[in-house]
Amino acid sequence: MSGGWHAVRLQGLQRAATLLLLALTFLAAAAAGARAELVAALSNHLVAVSTGFSGTDVLLFGTTDGSGDVVVVVRGPDSVVTVHRKGRAWGIWMNEADLAFSKVPGFWSIASSRPIDSILADGVAEFHGLGLPWLQFEPLENTSQRRIAEFRDALIRTKQRAGLFSGEPRPIAFLGQRLFRTDIWIPANAPIGTYTVSVFLIRDGEVVSAETTPLVVGKVGFEARVFDFAQKQSLGYGVLAVLVAALAGWLASLAFRKG
Amino acid sequence: MDIYLPIAEMAVDVFVLLGLGALVGFLSGLFGIGGGFLTTPLLIFIGIPAPVAVATGANQIVAPSVSAVLAHWRRGNVDLRMGVALLIGGLIGSAIGVTVFAVLHRLAQLDVVIRIAYVLFLGVIGLLMLKESVQAMRRARQPVSRPKPPRTWLDALPLKVRFRRSRLYVSALLPIAIGMLVGVLAAILGVGGGFIMVPAMIYLLGMPSSVVVGTSLFQIIFVTAAVTIMQALTTQTVDVVLALLLITGSVVGAQFGVRAGTRLRGDQLRVLLAIIVLTVAGKLAYDLVATPLDLYSVGGVPEAR
Known about the structure:
The structure holds 2 protein chains of 2 kinds.
Chain A: H1 2-34, E1 38-42, E2 46-49, E3 56-64, E4 69-75, E5 78-89, E6 92-105, E7 108-112, H2 116-119, H3 124-128, E8 138-139, H4 145-161, E9 170-171, E10 173-175, E11 179-186, E12 193-203, E13 206-219, H5 221-232, H6 234-258
Parallel strand pairs in A: 2-13, 7-9
Antiparallel strand pairs in A: 1-3, 3-11, 4-7, 4-12, 5-6, 6-8, 10-11, 12-13
Helix pairs in contact in A: 5-6
Chain B: E1 2-5, E2 10-13, H1 14-31, H2 36-45, H3 50-74, H4 80-106, H5 110-141, E3 160-163, E4 168-171, H6 173-189, H7 194-205, H8 209-234, H9 240-263, H10 266-289, E5 296-298
Antiparallel strand pairs in B: 1-2, 3-4
Helix pairs in contact in B: 1-9, 2-3, 3-8, 3-9, 4-6, 4-8, 5-10, 6-7, 6-8, 7-8
């Protein structure tokens, strides 16, 4: 019986503590809201990749609590990427060396209300990763700094050529003093996954406030179902792919025999 | 009009894919080849990731092969017994090919090995076909009977079987060996292998040209079906949407190809095929030796050429 009483009393204490915590959180939030330096939101948190998908713009808009510049960084899901270097062997170009990096974003772009160099103090861009040169990839083997730089540059160059990295900042427009907006371009070949959109408020060369919002690029409808089917029931998918192809061939043969 | 491919994870113009399918389908019907040796490089060329191009190429070949085999079947141009012998070899070969594929992939040398293999096989076969068909055209002006292929130690092999449609009495080991070679190629290069099998059946086995095309297509259906299922199981790189678009183009093209084939003479067909084969080989050879735009490449991102 006494065990039961203890349980009831403990529950009561827990409930009181939870209420107190909630109240504190509300107070903190209210205080933060009163002096919010930066508020930003996306027009859409899900980029739906379907049959007609050929890239899309997502609108980012927000306000600042006064003057200042805004920089936006969009970063796609990280993965491990291997960079190969070709060399000539018996007159033929073949892969002769490689280096793998982890923490390579599948997509990376930047936008700024003014040229980045003119609004940031020395070292700030590097610290916050505001620029392709400051992206931190981790090489998966111990090797010289020169070799890392060589393969890292090649990786950035290749991703830029594919339109997956953009070093040139896109513009951010200010509507009046405090309201800003920019379009985030998600290309057709952008990898699937969760992206992060980081908004930085910059004053006197320093980052004074930052906010990060997730953006999901995901397959929907028919595409999503085909992809899931191929991943989860590979054998059934393969057999079906063959049957569909054979059926198409048979139908064509019937159609042309009569025609 | 762009369409998003769910497995390749990229958007491609629908009409480019339909046109590509129609071209390959036409050649498939005309020559009795799967056309994969064109489909796979062309898909890679428009930016489809190589593994998806190889696996989907194999899937696509099934459709024009089925419709062409049915057309040949109605004309009585399929030697079923020979086809089954080729198929047994083909299944063994594709299993070997898949293993080799995986090893090369690990070593990051898959791309270059695929290209070298294409250049060697297409180059040798293209030259042989060109030489033979030019000789045949010269002979046609002063008619002489078709030379029988030389029979040597091949006649001494055991397991002799009578292939009635082909009017042959040879060892079953011969078509099995040919089928095996073709199966290896199917898995590694994403091709049906008709461009190897057709000449081998004519010059090595001495089969009559009339049954060669239908019989090779019969074997190609099953070997490419097996490769498709294996790729779907191990790499999940078969893109059904891409395959269906290619198929839509190719089934139409294949019918026109079969019709055009009945109007052209055999030796003319072979000169034409030899020229196409040599052109593809030449382009691939050039890409191997020409200095690439960028010495570096990144896995999963299309290369600059």
